[in-house]
Amino acid sequence: MTSIDRSQHDKLANAIRSLAMDGVEQAKSGHPGLPMGAADVATVLFTRVMNYDAADPRWPDRDRFVLSAGHGSMLLYALLYLTGVPGMELDDLKKFRQLESKTPGHPENFMTAGIETTTGPLGQGLATAVGMAMAERMLAAEFGKKVVDHHTYVLASDGDLMEGISHEAIALAGHQKLNKLIVMWDDNGISIDGPLTISDSVDQVARFKACGWRSERVDGHDPEAIEAAIRRAQKSNKPTMIACKTVIGFGAPKKAGTSKAHGEPLGAEELAAAKKALGITGGPFEVAADVLKAWRGFGAAGVAAHKEWKERFAALSERKRTEFERRLAHKLPAKLDKVILAHKKALIASPVTIATRKASELALDVIEPVMPELVMGSADLTPSNNTRAKGAEDFTPKTPKGRYVRYGIREHAMAAAMNGITLHGGFRTGGGTFLVFADYARPSMRLAALMGLPVVYVMTHDSIGLGEDGPTHQPVEQIASLRCMPNMHVFRPADAIETAEAWQFALENSKGPTVLALSRQNLAQLRTDATATNRSAKGGYELLAAEGGKAQVSLFASGSELEIAVAARKLLAEKGVRARVVSVPSLELLLAQDEATQSAIIGSAPIKIAIEAGVRFGWDAVIGHDGGFIGMHSFGASGPYKDVYKHFGITPDAVVEAAMKRHNA
Amino acid sequence: MTSIDRSQHDKLANAIRSLAMDGVEQAKSGHPGLPMGAADVATVLFTRVMNYDAADPRWPDRDRFVLSAGHGSMLLYALLYLTGVPGMELDDLKKFRQLESKTPGHPENFMTAGIETTTGPLGQGLATAVGMAMAERMLAAEFGKKVVDHHTYVLASDGDLMEGISHEAIALAGHQKLNKLIVMWDDNGISIDGPLTISDSVDQVARFKACGWRSERVDGHDPEAIEAAIRRAQKSNKPTMIACKTVIGFGAPKKAGTSKAHGEPLGAEELAAAKKALGITGGPFEVAADVLKAWRGFGAAGVAAHKEWKERFAALSERKRTEFERRLAHKLPAKLDKVILAHKKALIASPVTIATRKASELALDVIEPVMPELVMGSADLTPSNNTRAKGAEDFTPKTPKGRYVRYGIREHAMAAAMNGITLHGGFRTGGGTFLVFADYARPSMRLAALMGLPVVYVMTHDSIGLGEDGPTHQPVEQIASLRCMPNMHVFRPADAIETAEAWQFALENSKGPTVLALSRQNLAQLRTDATATNRSAKGGYELLAAEGGKAQVSLFASGSELEIAVAARKLLAEKGVRARVVSVPSLELLLAQDEATQSAIIGSAPIKIAIEAGVRFGWDAVIGHDGGFIGMHSFGASGPYKDVYKHFGITPDAVVEAAMKRHNA
């Protein structure tokens, strides 16, 4: 045990409380209750337990700390300042919740050094931490415990444990026996509506045990007890949840222990009274010099360990060092372009009529051998998503080098864990489910887009083309709903070549996530060229020009409907109407091109028809209000897929009719 | 206990197995494993336990049966046929998974009588059943146990219990002590990827106990044990989960107990062997006459109870009968229109500058007194969502007449429970959360849209206008992502009058759900008229005409940006440019009007600008590719909301600039 006496501990913890109160008060907005209640837990972590070097918050082998209860952001900002993370000054704390500050309302890892992940939407931090702990184990298995050996600590609130994603996350962590994951639950018994007893009566300790965790209760204001519990957790072969009984707004005489301490400034009077009760002197944002000095000492306590780590790292073979650095920098392997081009050429030489989900598997078969950092998985739909390439090995407690994760029927935790795997560093990752179940994973996908994490979602069964499973399983609006998300790229490739190009785009884009929407049904190979250029990368391109003169009709289609466009073009030609076909594997990417590029691709044919087995929403930007749209106007229906297509009128004949109606008007 | 001997039970259960195998085989698609494995459990429920009258599957006091594991739909179809639900014939079973049949791939309550809810997306049935059990308790408290006294039974699979929503649902049910909810878990240890042990190790019995349930294990192929467990459950003061250990594909010699029995036809050989092993004779879809007769007897066993119920119902006061019937028919109270019109007139007489979330509360204050069936609630954001009207009482085990539900931080289960409350009958319902967290609830919202359930989502903090909480909490794409969902209506009212009209639309629309996207910040009241006509009900209308001649510019806006449009119109007038302002509280509703109505509202001004603090996606249908859009092109940012609006250029000046650029071009 560390020798920090209680009075010193209290001073350290009260510095957090003081800054948190002042920050919220100055912003006239924010959450003082959690930082004040959890200050003791956080102080134990950052002064006695965690291995970190505040001067270098990117040290690869640091212990991770995830504030899942992101609304308590002032706790984190106070810690970054007190421990001395470069760039976090008192002035930053004073700008809490102001535009472009390093101290936004919820922790944003892209705004502030030292923040491991963006949190706020409840449950996300916890589930993301599960991915971090998985990545730690995988990376340690590959590079050795000498350079990868750290814990992931989470501070979670009642809300984190009420959200459904928490079940998926803890069941996954328990199953994987992620013993280096330690969750501190801030058990303060208060939520926004009042005492937690009005909405919850779960025995969380028993619940975690049922999910394969160690779990125990401690007094969240007793530093010795907290530390002892963590030491026990560190020795366990299971993940641990420590229920820390705390008082929200600890120290505030009137508001402590009530929901009034949760989400609004204390007010000048209560703030002053709280500081008095806690024995805090000095003005707003003042930290006594000796207290700051002590905190800075803890922030630098890991310098020696960091130095030793550097020495151990330097002792690795050059090959290992280079690979480790490449991987941490998210640099792609040099051979990637080459194998994808070779794959495209092989497809041109021997065209295939296969589902794009199968085409994705073929792409993975060539990518994985040159990309050891690619971690794939599926939410229990491996045989349907085709996410498991030749020679893949499962990631299990006994096979930590495995790169294939059996996520179980847990789309949400899968997406969050993929964020964590990516944030941890050392890996790129992708996971599969049915496209319609993107809805289950959406909050985590949004965080990937917000954080700019290059996660790949392999989402198969991408339309009514899945047939018999019916409308509950047929995505109709999912593609549109994902296209409208900032920084999310959606590809719906039409054949095996476009599928390879979509994979290439997804891997080359290091700044955001990509959805691959893939068919269940077989599709003809329509592309007849294979150059090094990724033709899908501008979102759209002319697949077939009009023959015999200027195009009278432009037909736009994505994915499985591209062959309908090709067939319609032929039928129109028989009627003497010249049509071109534009493949649009990524509508929003096409709309993100400059106007000249867009114009060139969209073209100037007077009649524009889009064909997509989804809703029209978004297509007006290409075809206009008066353009024709052959697609879905309702939910789908259960039946063999060819019947379903006919039933909803998504056929070459319907395209021809829409074009001729306009042609003859 | 009932006196059905084992050999008779086996014949009854095997009839289910036989039809399920044949249905899947004929369709060449489907899931035989669950019906075969769970046939004993289902047989016990439908022959010994449940109180129902197959001839009238709409009898209000029937026991509910929810097949949460919707992929096992042949189980349900077989039961409907065997018990004799009108309209389900052998021919329907033969059309399993064919277009427009009564036997789609997953159970669809809108296609088939006798199906309580549409299932398939895992976890939804379980969480919906929680709402049904809540509604039963509420309705019993109001009308008495003589006419409302039934159980809700759920058959759930491993997948149902792995999905996160299951945690929210069982925690809510345990907290509410919904003792008439009984969940039969089909514990077959198999998922699509293989044995469940590759992805899960949760002790489900312990987990349910931790969440306040009774829970026990039984042999799922022992009818006596199953029945005894259910009898114990019926006496409990808690909800009960019975883990029924079963063999997936029970009876299939080679595939039983493996994932090969799960989701594909057995194949002719295995099917024949299974029938032989089970002692089933006769050709495909043949049920021995004595077995069918026995089943029909059970289907009619509730006739007497149903008759007695009718007598008890007839003995109620006329007032109670009329009210019960009105409520079950989802007919609105006669006074509703009147109080809303009076409310609008009062607002015109005394205009208010308030947030639309507050305006929603004012609307509820006048609606709730005349609409006793309205059940409101919030996912722990009551003081933020303003969902709790004056005089509302909480729904708790001790106050079952309460109409306000404290859902806890459980958006997903809230949305599913609202589906269940609506499906049960007797209530209309609405629930609140932040708009950005629509993402957490989306799968259940989609089912509401698919089933056509008139649920109301009160989603506040509807844009960057929430300010300091930052991009994790600022919806940017949520409005677009909900607009593109079939049968979902999204209203983003601009002031207190439009908010009242949005509520009116939501309540009058009995065929689908409505999202009310409401502001955190105060908004001026812009409407100056109050007629009985709901001007918002066509999605858009001209708020201000151009002055001094034909409009040169049309400005379209929703919600909080309408006042920006009004201000821009004034600035443009100062520059001699004539602009009109069109309020668009519901874009997709406007686009659903006939072309003439749309044209009249959209107008023919050469310059079109839309203003909305969200993404452009969808607006091109109104403004065209060359129209101006003042809104969001990225995620938001943390800061005081006026700063955030300026930062992203959503201001009257920006509107003027966009208009003048086009005017001068």
TrEMBL record, chains A, B:
Q: Which residues does this entry assign to the site Important for catalytic activity?
A: H31, H262
Write out the entry's keywords from A to Z.
Calcium, Magnesium, Metal-binding, Thiamine pyrophosphate, Transferase
Subunit and interaction comment: Homodimer.
Which residues are recorded as binding substrate?
H31, H262, R357, S384, H461, D469, H473, R520
| Organism annotation | Bosea vaviloviae
Annotated Transketolase-like pyrimidine-binding domain residues: 354-525
Listed InterPro entries: THDP-binding, Transketo_C/PFOR_II, Transketolase-like_C_2, Transketolase-like_Pyr-bd, Transketolase_bac-like, Transketolase_BS, Transketolase_CS, Transketolase_fam
Q: Which cofactor does it need?
A: Mg(2+); Ca(2+); Mn(2+); Co(2+)
The record's comment on cofactor binding reads: Binds 1 Mg(2+) ion per subunit. Can also utilize other divalent metal cations, such as Ca(2+), Mn(2+) and Co(2+). Binds 1 thiamine pyrophosphate per subunit. During the reaction, the substrate forms a covalent intermediate with the cofactor.
Q: Would you identify the family this protein belongs to, as annotated?
A: Belongs to the transketolase family.
Name the positions where Mg(2+) binds. D158, N188, I190
Name of the protein: Transketolase
Catalytic activity reads: D-sedoheptulose 7-phosphate + D-glyceraldehyde 3-phosphate = aldehydo-D-ribose 5-phosphate + D-xylulose 5-phosphate
